[in-house]
Automatic annotation (TrEMBL):
Keywords: Oxidoreductase
Keyword Oxidoreductase among UniProt keywords: yes
Xref: PROSITE patterns: PDH_ADH
Species: Shimia sagamensis
Gene3D superfamilies per UniProt: NAD(P)-binding Rossmann-like Domain
Stored Pfam families: PDH_N
Name of the protein: Prephenate dehydrogenase
SUPFAM superfamilies the record matches: 6-phosphogluconate dehydrogenase C-terminal domain-like, NAD(P)-binding Rossmann-fold domains
Domain Prephenate/arogenate dehydrogenase: 11-259
Length: 259
């Protein structure tokens, strides 16, 4: 009798949320792994390249080996509550939110102890990764379990730079990195139309940066500026310095000494 050949079971991935970043995730994973998608906003949808995507229920998606939560930070607690009863022991649940302290607190509190938890933040979006994710950065915040190490290996194989950190370290750094970028981007967007003819290289770079964030949904700006516990401190320091400069550059009143 010939020896039976064993084949390694292919990892299945469940995706909860099919917004802009959810679509990017599905696009990147679709060719290599079976992906099951749940988003009540859609009955069927398309990937960016036009391929049609069937939608499934939350209970079905929860049966996958890895479940990715691509939902707004404000919805994380609700999604964890309704997802928790359907998760199998050993499942790895990860999020892709722009802040980490609050979502990971919700996952710790609301997901069952028999699942593993990993916080992630891809430091790019649909705009900046439209030509691929190779060379981009992603932050990993391990919380529970060891399967995150396999995720890190997979991501590195895709050409991503993996940064392992904590939720607190992440939010403290991103309070400036994203907080100021989106804040300035929002202000400049509200000042449109911006000049396009007589521009400098530095202004063109600034406008390019604004273009990468101006189409983000309001939930992203809210998460970055409100859900990040360190954002207010950075924002206040920025506005305080801006106020000092405003006073410094304000026109000086000339008082006439003529009676």
């Amino acid at each position: 009798m010939g020896q039976a050949q064993q084949t390694e079971k292919q990892t299945t991935i469940g995706l909860v949320g099919f917004g802009g970043f959810g679509r990017l995730i599905a696009q990147e994973l679709w060719a290599g792994c079976p992906v099951r998608i749940c988003d009540p906003s859609y009955t069927r949808a398309c990937l960016p390249d036009g391929r049609r995507v069937p939608m499934e229920g939350l209970a079905e998606v929860a049966q996958c080996d890895i479940v990715i939560l691509a939902v707004p930070v404000a919805r994380m607690a609700h999604v964890c509550r309704v997802l928790a009863p359907h998760l199998r022991p050993g499942t790895l649940v990860l999020d892709v939110g722009s802040v980490k302290v609050a979502p990971m607190r919700d996952m710790r509190a609301l997901l069952p102890l028999h699942v593993e938890i990993l916080g992630t933040h891809p430091l790019f979006g649909p705009q900046s990764a439209k030509d691929g994710v190779a060379g981009r950065k992603i932050a990993l915040c391990p919380e529970r379990g060891e399967r995150w190490r396999k995720v890190a290996v997979f991501l590195k194989a895709r050409g991503l730079e993996v940064i392992v950190t904590t939720a607190e370290e992440h939010d403290r750094e991103l309070a400036m990195v994203q907080g100021l970028t989106h804040l300035i981007g929002k202000v400049l967007t509200d000042l449109e139309p911006l000049p396009e003819r007589m521009t400098t290289a530095s202004f063109d770079l600034l406008r390019e940066a604004v273009g990468m964030v101006q189409d983000d949904p309001p939930t992203v700006l809210h998460a970055i500026e409100v859900a990040n516990p360190y954002a207010a401190e950075v924002r206040e320091a920025f506005f305080a310095r801006a106020s000092e400069l405003q006073a410094q550059f304000a026109p000086q009143r000339i008082v006439s000494d003529v009676a």
